[in-house]
């Protein structure tokens, strides 16, 4: 009899412990209403809440704040109005021709920066698209290259510049590239731009003449070095320069110098974001918002409860029509 009592007590304790171990989140009960569903620009909309969520995230439905795009990391090509490349190329001094080349690639894998032999073979064997003629660059002249079409490179773009110099003529050319810009214009009116400093350039000198004989050498501070790409003013002025040199200088040599950017995905985008308007430390029964442009917006509230065992959530949507201010 005593053993039965003890056993029953243990069962009771086990049941109690089991109950304490149930840390699953509470089911979400959440309702939302708006005091108005048709308003004018600048007229506040007040949303009222009922239920038990510990967390609420608000998506206004405006560009950049759409719930449906919260996980989007790539734009559909149909969302992009144009993708373009622009820069100014100033070719100075010397008499050589064919000294400056512009290349594009969809799939160049990038330099290893470890094996000069392998990287040289990779560059020379890759199927680059020569854009020099399309860019209209001319030896000995300053040329403004504007809005070269990049629409075929949405899924992948590698930009490369190449400088060639020969010891058969002196001095070799000096090339200055300024205003380097890759621009995306979206059909929703937004524009994104990348400058030269955003492209993370690496250098490769096929016949290195710098004092270290380093094929990956690039000058990022101090003074120019003949036969080596200079990025000294890239961050401050969006300027890239290479000076070929002249006969009698310590670095006088044939030059075949590449400047290659990291691969870009032009249709990449940042996921749309919501605003966290309530967490477990804040009580919230209403929320007021102002729309700044006319339109019909799908306003979304993501409400949830969470625990160490997981989370539960519900989504509520309302349509708000915003008319032009009277």
In brief:
The chain is mainly beta.
Describe the protein's architecture and organization:
The protein is built from four helices and 18 strands. 11% of the residues lie in helices and 38% in strands. Mean pLDDT is 90; it is low at 1-20. The chain folds into two domains: 25-72 and 271-323, Immunoglobulins (Immunoglobulin-like); 77-260, no CATH class. The chain has 326 residues and is mainly beta.
SSE order and pairing:
Layout: H1 2-20, E1 30-34, E2 38-40, E3 45-51, E4 55-59, E5 80-92, E6 100-105, H2 116-125, E7 129-130, H3 132-135, E8 142-149, E9 158-165, E10 174-186, E11 191-195, E12 202-205, H4 234-237, E13 239-243, E14 255-260, E15 275-278, E16 286-289, E17 295-307, E18 310-323
Parallel strand pairs: 2-18
Antiparallel strand pairs: 1-3, 3-16, 4-15, 4-17, 5-8, 5-10, 6-7, 6-9, 9-14, 10-11, 10-13, 12-14, 17-18
Sequence stretches where pLDDT stays below 50 over 5 or more residues = 1-20
Distance between the termini: 86 Å
Cα radius of gyration in angstroms: 31 Å
Q: Could you report the average pLDDT, rounded to the nearest whole number?
A: 90
Number-wise, the strands total 18
Beta content comes to 35-45%
Helix amount, in percent?
A: 10-25%
Count of helical regions: 4
Biggest β-sheet, characterized? 5 strands, mixed
Strand order of the largest sheet: 2-18-17-4-15
- Topology as a string of helices (H) and strands (E): HEEEEEEHEHEEEEEHEEEEEE
Gross morphology is elongated
């Amino acid at each position: 009899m005593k053993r039965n009592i003890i056993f029953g007590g243990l069962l009771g304790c086990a049941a109690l412990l089991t109950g304490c171990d149930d840390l699953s989140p509470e089911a979400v009960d959440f309702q939302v209403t708006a005091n108005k569903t048709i308003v004018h620009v600048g007229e506040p909309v007040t949303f009222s809440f009922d239920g038990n969520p510990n967390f609420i995230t608000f998506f206004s439905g405006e560009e950049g704040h759409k719930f449906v795009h919260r996980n989007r990391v790539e734009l559909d090509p149909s969302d992009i109005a144009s993708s373009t490349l622009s820069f100014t190329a100033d070719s100075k001094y010397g008499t050589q021709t064919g000294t400056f080349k512009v290349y594009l690639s969809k799939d160049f894998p990038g330099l290893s920066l470890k094996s000069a032999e392998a990287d040289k073979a990779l560059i020379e064997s890759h199927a680059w698209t020569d854009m020099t003629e399309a860019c209209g660059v001319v030896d000995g002249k300053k040329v403004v290259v504007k809005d070269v079409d990049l629409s075929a490179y949405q899924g992948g773009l590698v930009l490369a510049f190449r400088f060639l110099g020969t010891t058969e003529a002196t001095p070799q050319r000096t090339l200055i590239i300024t205003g380097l810009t890759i621009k995306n214009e979206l059909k929703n009116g937004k524009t994104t731009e990348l400058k030269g400093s955003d492209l993370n350039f690496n250098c490769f000198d096929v016949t290195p003449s710098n004092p270290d004989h380093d094929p990956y050498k690039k000058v990022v501070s101090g003074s120019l070095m003949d036969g080596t790409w200079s990025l000294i003013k890239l961050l401050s002025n969006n300027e890239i320069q290479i000076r070929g040199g002249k006969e009698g200088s310590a670095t006088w040599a044939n030059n075949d110098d590449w400047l290659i950017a990291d691969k870009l995905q032009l249709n990449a985008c940042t996921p749309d974001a919501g605003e966290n308007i309530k967490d477990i430390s804040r009580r919230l029964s209403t929320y007021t918002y102002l729309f700044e442009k006319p339109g019909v917006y799908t306003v979304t509230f993501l409400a949830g409860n969470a625990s160490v065992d997981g989370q539960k959530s519900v989504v509520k949507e309302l349509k708000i029509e915003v008319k032009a201010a009277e």
